[in-house]
Amino acid sequence: MDRLHDFVEQARKILESEQPDESSIWRAYVALESAILDLKLAHNLEHEKQPSSPKRNAKKDELILAARKKLREIDVEGDKKALLYNLRSCRNALKALLS
To answer: pTM here?
Structure first.
């Protein structure tokens, strides 16, 4: 669980910076992907419901705010299915930013 917490904290710190640049957003994305993989494998959550992707016309600021908000709400010690859903939601916002 420490590794999962570290990945989430790494992404949180990056996104809480004033204006994260593209390379920082990539690092946050990789940290979230690692957290998702770690959680899925540790708790056998392979086939859980996926969140919908953000709108294609969403603005950069809206996507960053959405990811920040979700990361603030994440409870690493709480329900693992909800945690996985929220991590995926954050990851999807960052993915939309990077594409």
So the answer is: 0.88
